[in-house]
Specification:
Helix content is 44%, strand content 16%. The chain has 339 residues and is α/β, with parallel strands linked by helices. It folds into two domains: 183 residues, 3-Layer(aba) Sandwich (Rossmann fold); 142 residues, Glycogen Phosphorylase B (Rossmann fold). The protein has a seven-stranded parallel β-sheet with strand order 3-2-1-4-5-6-7. A five-stranded parallel β-sheet has the order 9-8-10-11-12, sandwiched between helices. Helix 7 packs across helix 9, helix 8 packs across helix 12 and helix 10 crosses helix 13. The longest helix has 17 residues. The chain is globular.
Length: 339
């Protein structure tokens, strides 16, 4: 039995990293040769999920960042007990006697510091220095993130493995009545372009808005509120196309979500998006409004191409599952313990 500690504090903050952390943790606890213990710290958001064996602390992440990344005089074992492996979050890198694993979701603060708050850049620089010096193994969520990490760090390729994520939720096929009721509830037309909201310029929303002027545009988290998992699936299944033309992504969960939900995808021909799309989406230059506009038009108005994209999307979706992610992650733990 391998005793593994996993920092799940990121669940408190929502977003893609929270989705990864929650789903990976749920699947890892199903593996019979792992004894999982979870570390959770948040001042304002108590943990309300169904994970077992959680050590919870009502303290702010800024305190743990100082404790683990700066002062470094208290090991993680003081909080969650002795371990064989500790898997850290993307925020702190605590001292530990165990084998140490961490996941890199992207390197935005390191490669594009202009898109992040200076304090966030500072934290990530400090943590990277610790990762380079102490970490035993790094999981990257895409080949693109692995390549970027090798560009901004001295971590050897032999210590990095790419393990893909799964979809945001366990999406179920909705009935026509469910979709109709969802559209009525949120006052949505039968045809619309779906985009994903975000802070700053990285999601490229201004160009997407300009490229979508011939159609009704819905920006998730902006023109429509943040939805729970059940309604998120209905949103994808109600749309005509996902326009996910970011300037940079470490993975691109909405692409996978759209594939699972049978929604044609237009995405960028840069960074991880090409890789995750895997030939099942229309690729556009994210800096060209006209190219984005043209690809959106094809996905909406060319019915044969749309059906082709949906079919390819369902096939591509088979490459992404949390069960597979957990299985490959557990293999990393086992190899480290056997060394």
């Amino acid at each position: 039995m391998i005793k593994v500690g996993l920092d799940i504090s990121q669940i408190a903050h929502g977003g893609g990293v929270a989705t990864y952390t929650q789903n990976l943790a749920e699947q890892l606890q199903e593996l019979t040769d792992l004894e999982m213990v979870y570390f959770y710290s948040s001042l304002r958001k108590p943990y309300r999920g169904g994970l077992k064996n959680i050590k919870k602390y009502r303290l702010p992440p800024t305190l743990f960042e100082m404790l683990f990344n700066r002062w470094r005089n208290v090991p993680i074992e003081k909080f969650i007990g002795p371990l064989d492996v500790f898997h850290s979050s993307d925020w702190t890198q605590p001292p530990s006697k165990a084998k140490r694993v961490t996941t890199y979701h992207d390197v935005v603060p390191l490669k594009y510091p202009q898109w992040s708050h200076p304090k966030i850049v500072e934290v990530h620089k400090r943590r990277l220095w610790l990762v380079e010096k102490e970490i035993d193994f790094v999981i990257a969520v895409s080949e693109a993130t692995k390549k970027d990490l090798m560009e901004v760090s001295v971590i050897p390729e032999s210590k990095i493995k790419v393990i893909y994520e799964g979809p945001t939720g366990n999406f179920q096929k909705a009935s026509k009545i469910q979709i109709k009721e969802f559209r009525i509830k949120y006052n949505l037309p039968e045809k619309f372009v779906l985009a994903i909201g975000g802070i700053g310029e990285r999601r490229n929303l201004e160009r997407i808005k300009e490229a979508s002027t011939d159609y009704y545009l819905v920006v998730a988290g902006n023109t429509i509120p943040r939805l729970d998992i059940n309604e998120l699936g209905l949103l994808y299944q109600s749309a005509s196309v996902l326009a996910y033309c970011s300037l940079y992504e470490g993975f691109g969960l909405p692409i996978v979500d759209a594939f699972y939900c049978g929604l044609p995808v237009v995405t960028s021909d840069v960074s991880s998006m090409v890789e995750i799309a895997g030939g099942a989406a229309l690729l556009a230059d994210p800096l060209s409004t006209e190219d984005i506009r043209e690809k959106i038009k094809i996905a909406i108005e060319d019915e044969e191409e749309a059906e082709n994209l949906i079919k390819k999307g369902f096939e591509r979706a088979n490459f992404f599952s949390w069960k597979k992610c957990a299985k490959e992650t557990a293999e990393v733990y086992r190899r480290l313990v056997e060394k």
